[in-house]
Design a protein that fits this description.
The chain is mostly helical. The protein has 9 helices and no strands. The longest helix is centred in the C-terminal third of the chain and has 24 residues.
Length: about 180
């Protein structure tokens, strides 16, 4: 059971209701994470704004979902693993082997694997990557804008991982569990 209450959309703060309505319109459902974050309309607006902005960036939805899976596995976030496994299958149309590989920072595609390894290094080093790490992701075809977007996607996913790990958010997707606690 969640350690922070998850209100229904109707029980949510008035300032959060239009934001949650936009989530419903986009996804067809309002995930528990959004209702929980809606306790703070400012936090919900900030999260949705950043998430929407990175969705318009250079990185494909397939890569963004893989990064989300890798970071969720690293942080041991079952909620985000469950959500991004579902989104990876149904939105990004990734196959099971790629979804599973992404959790460990791998991909059949060398460029994608370089991005995932870089994303994990960003998380592990708290952003203090080496010159070699940066050179490797650049050699894999990622320009400066893409590198920045990888870092921002890591940060966005760390944010949701931490919220869910603190709250123990009730999972409302088909459940996926982290392999090992981080």
């Amino acid at each position: 059971m969640s350690r922070i209450s998850i209100p229904t959309v109707d029980q949510s703060l008035e300032a959060s209701k239009p934001l949650l309505a936009a989530v419903l319109k986009q996804l067809g459902v309002v995930p528990n994470l959004m209702k929980l974050v809606g306790h703070s309309p400012a936090a919900l607006e900030g999260y949705l704004s950043l998430n929407g902005a990175v969705g318009k960036g250079k990185l494909s939805v397939q890569l963004r979902e893989r990064i989300a899976l890798a970071i969720a596995e690293y942080n041991g976030c079952d909620y985000c693993l469950s959500a991004h496994d579902y989104l990876g299958q149904n939105v990004a149309k990734l196959n099971r082997s790629e979804l599973d590989a992404a959790r460990d920072g791998h991909s059949e595609d060398a460029s994608t694997e370089a991005a995932l390894r870089f994303a994990l290094q960003v998380a592990k080093s708290r952003g203090r990557v080496s010159d070699a790490d940066l050179a490797t992701v650049r050699l894999a075809g990622f320009d400066e804008a893409s590198v920045v977007e990888i870092v921002v996607n890591v940060a966005l996913n760390v944010l949701t991982n931490y919220v869910n790990n603190v709250a123990l958010t009730d999972i409302d997707f088909p459940k996926v569990s982290a392999k090992l606690a981080a």
